[in-house]
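Q: what sequence does this backbone want?
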């Protein structure tokens, strides 16, 4: 991993995007098992339909994990100081999650040089499913 340096990063820089495979039932089952989140709306078609949904849909925290992966492909995990997300849409079966990040601020705090990154996880239609921000320490 080529870790970015604070002096080399500029406001407006983009992180390398992370494009994931389409969400399918196996993805949801594996995530439910790994996370312990067995909410039926994500894994049971009958329950999802009773909840007025056309089908099961992805856990919001799955997309949050994808945003975490976007960050850890850019810097080692110990450099992440904060990660906050907001759920703004449903990720349906067949959606292709694409995670992007943009440096929006450079600052110093607690004796460290840091950058603030605007984050988005969108589907293949460019519709945001999650938005958020992260703060990362850079040397």
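A:
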């Amino acid at each position: 991993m080529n870790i970015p340096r604070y002096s080399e990063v500029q406001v407006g820089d983009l992180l390398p995007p992370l494009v994931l495979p389409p969400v399918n039932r196996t993805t949801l089952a594996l995530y439910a098992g790994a996370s312990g989140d067995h909410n039926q709306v994500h894994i049971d078609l009958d329950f999802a339909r009773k909840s007025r949904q056309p089908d099961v849909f992805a856990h919001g925290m799955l997309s949050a994990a994808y945003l975490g992966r976007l960050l850890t492909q850019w810097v080692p995990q110990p450099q992440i100081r904060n990660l906050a997300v907001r759920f703004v849409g449903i990720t349906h079966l067949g959606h292709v999650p694409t995670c992007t990040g943009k440096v929006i601020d450079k600052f110093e705090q607690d004796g460290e040089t840091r950058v603030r990154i605007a984050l988005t996880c969108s589907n293949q239609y460019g519709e945001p499913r999650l938005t958020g921000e992260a703060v990362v320490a850079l040397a």
